[in-house]
Design brief:
about 675 residues; alpha/beta; 34 strands; 17 helices; nine-stranded mixed β-sheet; homotrimer
């Protein structure tokens, strides 16, 4: 794991900055306050198209220039974002079809990300502003990189033109329309067709296979759009300037409809991070998490583990919260803790959204470091304290490498399939992913989060499959070989159930893996008053029939008692676990610990959540252990290693008592000489 | 009660079969497995239009032929379904208006039942495929009948053309537009018009009378469509071939939106089974019910009682579940119990939907007898056991006659009215119907479920009216005569409140029946902290004022205490009961038992749910008593009759101990000689 | 406070009457029954356009004439309503754009209030029917006034034409488009434009400032429409005939979707009562309230306090409930109590909606005084009893004056802003308004409810600001001056936060009032496990930092404990209170009592809800005290004054025991001689 863009031995610390939205002239004052807070980078320009091009072809970069100038004066670096995700009204007036059609109807003007990213008029003017802006700024010494667009996705675009593109795409993917009929089972309910041109608009389809195919296509549109932008930017950018994107996650809201609150929840449905990563030279991401009593670090860890694993490189957190809407106002210490949590996951820097709180518009309450009054406030003061620490330890903690032996395998295709065939009305794919991820996280069993498209599994000893519903044959044989060669796998219910077209296999489940798992099943039901090892089973239960596997747990129920709930099979040199139902998290933890033991993996420490330990190696190969106390209670632990707390310089011997105050952090550099 | 189509002294046992959707060639193997399971009939072809006519006018019945050939080889009978409920994409391309407009907008291509059944293009091509398919198959000896379309309804069709048809229909129904204005009270809120052509689209109306009139019209469209199909089929079918339809019920879902789970809940809103029955020669139906701990038999009994009562004939269960989605996986014994429950209600056969679990499409999880792996599974094995029993007792238990003395009177019009003026936001019409039906069912008081259009009430001694809100004068006088002549009636709140135009009567309620019930009222309210006989009253309370009637129960409340809740009146030779509020089911049971006693009806046995007794007479006039244990606990009862358990051949004397194991069945042929 | 239209020394008592909707000829009988019940006024004609003009330009006022004739015969007065809120179908056929476009799409024909009130075709025919009807009836002696339209609002109209009108309106409001961009912060997300014609349709906007501006514009459309109607009516009406409108309130439903149940909840979002009052000569209103155990009188008091305060005049309750849908059937005494509650708030009369229960249409269950059977019922009998009392005391209790020293300050603009930026997903603006209003009401601290546009604050000693979110600078300085001069203010959280464009102030909060309140804050959050004075804080908490103010209460919480929750500051000659969080109602009451004491205001009595005291002065200046027992329990109190109960003629000495039976009323005329 290595990265060209890690700020030459320091950590990026920054914020988004919108000089264009300011209600008064604050530029110099803002730069001063940032500088004093240890901020070394700002991100500008994305979203401000109407200011930069008030009329078609009439460019005005005076705001951009002002900010870059001021940043230069105060020694701040700048990331310039292309403003293409918020279209000006004149563009919609030129061509109303710039606004995307979606399954809910034609989009209205007003929100961002309301456009059809394939629309030719949109592309024409987007190309114009990208070329103008990047050529205008690429020569500035303090511009260290470009962000292309913002949180790019396909935005649910559909309609006649998109259907035409989809039909073209299908033609390339399938040799004949008969093959399409067969692969996607279109015969069902009179859905078969006789030509590619006859393929219907998938937005109305009741055929999950056809619907999921369309989702794959739409994700490819978002990917193609980013690659297109990237190729334009590269014509102007310097070799030392990175190109990045803030890949974001499935969002889960908890507030009023129309409000923007929520958090970074899981695998993104509307673009495939794995595929789209080819558009950037530095992986970037947005991670928003709970705070106050609900801060656990799990959103930071999950997001980081996924984004890092895509390329096994350090990544940049382009957006994270300072304070935001009423739910997010960190307790003292939490802001600092969050920043170090990002670094502990492999981030090469942390940037806030945003510097100051906007005075109107949708995000008025999605605040900034500064509140609306621009005064120094507790949040700003803690940013300052954190900035000082990051500056001080930047050299020691940049370019951290993480080498996990466990991987959680996720899939955009399984996510789409679970939208069509949910395990329960209360559950989506990411609920299952987090059910397992969180259990690992709380055990301090670190993992990579990889896509099933990832070819390199050799680095791992334990692969975990949460509801990996639909996979290519290649993945099936990959699993077989992995176990055969000594690996351990742990699969949840509903894994390996369907092929890549979301068509359920018509032989014994799990498809072509019954010998690997030593088990099969062909019935399942909702568990009602069913227990496993004395604990309630929930939502789904497969009636597993061991064929060679050891029954690790059975169902307790008058009629289902003869079936297994959890099986473990020795196969080749490895082991294969299969869990047929959803058990409580602590029970899952016990099972995962056993499976990890099969893989020769033990938790680094006896610590358990709320005490979290995240590990890495520094540039010199020394072990760095980040210890976090995710609670309001002071904690005292026996130090698990000999080492030095880089934050305080204090030395600890293994076993020595170590204090972790509420929401505290210790960064222990292990002393391996002892 | 008799029927020409009861398979010559045997019971139909079968499944829907979609050879067109198979992912591999399984035809011979499937036939073999069916044969071994005692299956004697398959239902084919419905829904496969695009396979049978891949291009306009280009017919291809090779799949149909293959299946009929194979069935013939294995001695299986075939029901051929017309595929008209799932339109191919080319038909929509020929005429986009084949897709119906509904109040929610224009339908999209994808789902079935999305078409406008009155569209001329649709009718043209539907006629073509019906003629081609029926003429192609009618000569085959093992084709025993045809199913026209599938679960036909009006599908909420509306729009300009439908409005024109509605205006024409109104012209035939009313002598003048002034009569329409008056009958439907269109003056309200400026709704009156001066010509039939001026009648507005009813989808926006706030006039319940106008809206309900439109519902009657739309139900008639579905009826007319079935008669049209039937008339075409009759031009080709043999006299020994039946014509049927799978009339289905109001569906109640309990799962995620877009998922198909749910069960057969009550009276169907979108077609009138009574009126549409004229299109068929054999009544058919779809009945889906809860299973596992929630299996009570009530959905099977209600659906059967309604469909049988329409023509007082045996009927065919064209669809019922084997296993289906995660909620439906029967406990051991339940599948067999369900099959016998259908027979006990008067079914001449039971067919499953469907043979194997589909590998993709909307119904992938609405499984079949076989799971996706096609292997024999516990469900298949129990189907086999059941098939053997049905085969063995087919001759003894075909053509069963049921002669109930109680009828529950339902009404499509009342159902529509209650959609407009619900008793509570938590209640619909069928909730009230089931509140009463279930109470009877659990008392083992068997009843017919008849429509208020039914003219022949003489066969009954007790008529029960759940929320029979809007009725013609004719029904009112029917009630009067019935009681006068010695019958007993039991009416719930809100009965006889409005006329057939859903216009509330402007004289004393219940309209023209105050002498019959010896009671009137003109105020009602929501009961809050009100009890009746010490039990909580819910949702609705009419403040009944007896005028001659006996007060059987009063409200307990500071201000409503002077009003009656339940009244009983002697009128003519009979009795009339009126219940003004919703009481708990067990309290309702007490009231119903008393009313039944007035009608000279006592439950056949002392058994109560979960022990259910359903009675019939066989071809020779012997009494057949089906005893069911709808619980997981073994039960032991005193045998209520002398007789022989046809399943085991064991003789029982009245009073002798009889064991009903969990989910068990005993079919007692009463020995009347003793 | 005085009013020309108070029926010359008597109280109006009446009902809406729709002869057009009757299922039979009842006119004479109805008049008789009304007369007997003490009803002296009926309201007719509104909503019956299709009857009065069955074809374009063809007027037929025979129903109107019949009713006015009969009323004359029985000595009843008539209010004639223009029927313009329910358009006939022919008008929609003439011009489909008469049906408004809204954000949810084009309206359908059927409901009332579905039209675009700015549509020229609509205006043309509306003008025709208004001129014809008013000129036809203005000469009738018993026509005492006209109601223009009904519950007029803007009905969410939008679309291309409305956008054009909005752009014109903006041109008049702003000097340049640059000023618009700046004032509304349109730069945000590429929303800035270069000409007024380029301003986009606001229905899609995510800019709250722009959205709220559009709401102000739309409210002005409703106001303009009423003024337009009023000007036409004035061309025909006599000087002694009043012009009124039934201003209604934000409606809160509790029933099934599509049902009309609910109650008058708070400030109306879709027309500004303050601005629109210029269209009428007599303020009118609709007030619907809970009854039975939920009758508290607060809806009656709030609605009356607001409508009365707009012009400091008596007002007419044009609609209130008798019985209505199943939830509203008053307990004995409640109907009478409600009528006197209206009078106690300053009403010059009470009218019911409506006389009889409609036999079909949407409002069939929104009943009348008479039920559907037209028989005298308990409701009618209590109306009769009430009518007799009102007649007897009409002279004594007409023209009551109320002079409150407290005012609750509300704002249509703050309401719109809170729709965009709600305090919580469970709360809207009116929840906060009622939180405070109800606390005052239950303390028997009477108040006016005034709009922030009201210029005359001098009459008050205590001003209360519930979430007065966005205000003009003028209001800010008004607050400063008010306190400086000795007034007391009490502001809730989120007050004075944004300017009149809904743009958050960028200096210290509360804007320009930090010295007045002696306090500032710049952080807030959701309180979780936070208490204030031992009671739970809810929904919102601002972290107040006193700067001179006294901390009256602090937050109890590990991390927020250093911040104040409630502050009190002496400023000039007055006091300023600020409450940063939502506390339980009884705790709020304690705070309000203290603030009132600062203003020199003590509750008139020690009575607290359910004993409510409402005070006024009669024509002669005597104090009238209305005492209400809003409970089912008889209550006995020490009489707070010497005086006579006008209802019974009984004299009471101060301190003497006075019985208030359940739902009872005493009207005490204070004897000031003692």
């Amino acid at each position: 794991m290595s990265n060209a863009h890690d700020m030459k031995g320091s950590l990026i610390f920054g914020a988004a900055y919108y000089e264009e939205y300011l209600p008064c002239d604050r530029l110099e004052k803002d730069m001063q306050m940032m500088k004093e807070a240890g901020i070394n980078t700002i991100r500008i320009a994305e979203s401000t198209w109407s200011v930069e091009e008030p009329r078609p072809g009439e460019y005005d970069f005076s705001h951009v220039d002002r900010v870059i100038d001021a940043a230069e004066k105060y020694g701040l670096n700048v990331i310039v974002g292309t403003p293409t995700y918020a279209v000006p009204h004149w563009l919609v007036q030129l061509d109303p079809d710039v606004l995307a059609e979606t399954a809910q109807g034609k989009n209205r003007f007003g929100p961002r990300q309301n456009m059809d990213i394939t629309n030719p008029t949109y592309r024409h003017y987007a190309e114009g502003i990208i070329r103008a802006l990047v050529s205008h700024t690429a020569g500035r010494p303090n511009v260290i990189g470009f962000q292309i667009d913002n949180e790019t996705k396909h935005y649910g675009v559909c309609g006649k033109r998109i259907l035409g593109l989809f039909q073209e795409w299908m033609k390339k993917r399938y040799s004949s329309i008969e093959q399409v009929n067969k692969a996607l089972g279109l015969n069902y309910w009179s859905g078969s067709v006789t030509s590619f041109e006859d393929l219907p608009d998938p937005t109305g389809t009741i055929n999950g296979s056809y619907a999921c195919e369309f989702e794959i296509f739409r994700r490819s549109l978002a990917e193609e759009f980013l690659v297109w932008q990237s190729d334009i930017v590269k014509q102007y950018s310097r070799p030392d300037q990175f190109i990045t994107q803030n890949f974001d996650f499935q969002w889960k809201s908890f507030g009023a409809p129309g409000q923007q609150d929520g958090y970074s929840f899981g695998v993104q449905p509307d673009i495939c991070h794995y595929d789209a990563s080819r558009a950037v030279t530095l992986m970037g991401t947005d991670i928003y998490c709970f705070d106050q009593d609900a801060l656990t670090g799990r959103e930071i860890a999950f997001g980081g583990d996924l984004i890092r694993s895509v390329r096994q490189e350090n990544y940049l957190v382009l957006e994270s919260q300072a304070q935001a809407f009423k739910d997010w106002l960190p307790y003292p210490g939490q802001l600092r803790q969050m920043a170090w949590s990002h670094v502990a996951s492999g981030a090469c820097g942390v940037m806030y959204w945003n510097w100051y709180s906007l005075h109107n518009g949708l995000e008025s309450y999605w605040k900034g470091i500064l509140s609306h009054d621009f005064e120094p406030n507790p949040t700003y003061l803690e940013v300052k304290e954190t900035g000082e620490e990051l500056r001080r330890l930047g050299s020691a903690l940049s370019c951290l490498r993480k080498e996990n032996r466990i991987a959680l395998v996720v899939s955009s295709e399984a996510l789409s399939a679970m939208d069509r065939f949910p395990t329960d009305k209360e559950l989506c794919y990411n609920d299952i992913v987090h059910w397992i991820y969180d259990a690992l996280y709380k055990l301090n069993l670190e993992c990579d989060v990889i896509f099933d498209k990832e070819k390199d599994w050799d680095r791992y000893d334990l692969l975990i499959f949460p509801e990996l519903y639909c996979v290519r044959e290649e993945v099936i044989s990959h699993v077989r070989t992995f176990v055969e060669n000594g690996g351990t796998v742990f699969a949840s219910f509903r894994s390996f159930f369907a092929d890549e077209h979301c068509k359920i296999w018509h032989d014994r489940q799990p498809h072509d893996l019954t010998d690997v798992f030593g088990m099969t099943y062909n019935q399942y039901t909702r568990p009602v008053n069913v227990t496993v090892d004395g604990r309630e089973a929930s939502y789904w239960m497969e009636l597993l029939k061991p064929e060679g596997a050891e029954t690790k747990a059975s169902y307790q129920h008058k009629y289902w008692g003869s079936y297994a709930a959890l099986t473990r099979n020795a196969f080749g040199k490895g082991h294969a676990w299969y869990l047929g139902t959803m058990v409580p998290e602590d029970q899952l933890q016990e099972y995962l610990l056993e499976a990890a033991a099969d893989a020769g993996i033990l938790p680094e420490t006896d610590l358990r959540y709320p005490l979290i330990c995240r590990n890495a190696a520094d540039k010199d190969g020394s072990s760095i252990h980040f210890l976090f106390n995710y609670s309001s209670e002071d904690q005292s632990i026996a130090c698990p290693w000999n080492g030095e707390d880089l934050l305080t310089g204090k030395q600890f011997a293994k076993g020595q008592s170590l204090s972790l105050p509420d929401w505290g952090v210790v960064i222990l550099k292990e002393n391996t000489d002892d």
